[in-house]
Amino acid sequence: MVELNSLRQFLVVARLEHLSRAADELRVAQPSLSRTVARLEGELGVPLFDRGGRLRLNDAGKLFRDHVERALGELDAGRRAVAEAAGEGLGAVRLASETFLTLTGPLSAYKRAHPSVEVELHWCPAEDMSRRLRARDVDLCVASQPIHAEGLASAQLFDEAVGVGTPPGHPLAGRASVTVEDLADQPFITARQGHWIRRLLDRLFAARDLTPKIVCESDEPGAIADLISAGLGIGLVPAFALRAASRGPGAWVPVDSPDCRRTVTLYWGADSRLSTAARLMRTTITGWDWTTGRPPEER
User: Fold this and answer.
1) Per the CB 3.0–4.6 Å rule, which of 130, 141, 277, 285 could disulfide with 149?
2) Using CA atoms, how far apart are residues 153 and 159, in angstroms rounded to an integer?
3) Could you tell me the sign of the dihedral formed by the alpha carbons of 13, 15, 18, 22, in that order?
4) Cα distance between residue 226 and residue 204, in whole Å
5) 63 CB contacts (<8 Å, ≥6 apart)?
6) Distance between CA 88 and CA 83 in Å, rounded?
7) CA 176 → CA 171, 172, 200, 254, distances in Å?
8) Following CA atoms 13, 18, 21, 22 in sequence, which dihedral angle do they give, to the nearest 10 degrees?
9) For the whole model, what pTM was predicted?
10) Residue 261 contacts residue 160 (beta carbons within 8 Å)
């Protein structure tokens, strides 16, 4: 009989596709973890990983992973529902997003209104969000690009232009607008693969058979803004960042392209029973005034 702990360990190995790193994260000995995976494969009667050189989750492993995530997610949801029904507060809420800079206002308002609620924040690329919602690994997701998947409900929060941030005095800084072709030879400071800014940059250039000249990849939005201001390059910057951030580029220039935008959307599982805490979080985020940056009662 498969043990729950074995399933949880399998999910870590499946996510990392690396036994030693998984063993470090789980704080177990690698030989013990290897035996757990082998025993699980023996009980199922099929290998879950390809082991040719590097550990890779195979098709059977991906299928099993999806079922395990949903099963464990249901168990966790059941525990939270029982705790809530027993009167142990409003519960907890788990929110995933590609960036939390956009969400600092509603998150702050939510925490002030519900200080006893435990709020978990998870950075997550858009391509992983539907799977994590179906697995009930998170309750809500905020994406800066569309998620095309079945079983999700959504509410659009806002749509905005994405422009180019330049250093002070840059030749493009005084322009009323620029085209993607104008940016072809410019050095770009951008985010790593998976981040919405990087995906937008790659998509804009690929549509025109161009390749961006990337001189720096960073996971820190503040560092990207500072490096642009320091003259190291230019970068895509959403209009929202100009209002929300204390640090910004020297200049912001609109891009003359209708697809240089981002649409920020809140997603949740269409058939999920959200906790009271998650429902209140959904109400706070969808009711936020994104133009003024204030809750609806302060408009």
Assistant:
1) 130
2) 18
3) negative
4) 24
5) none
6) 6
7) 12, 9, 21, 7
8) 10
9) 0.72
10) yes
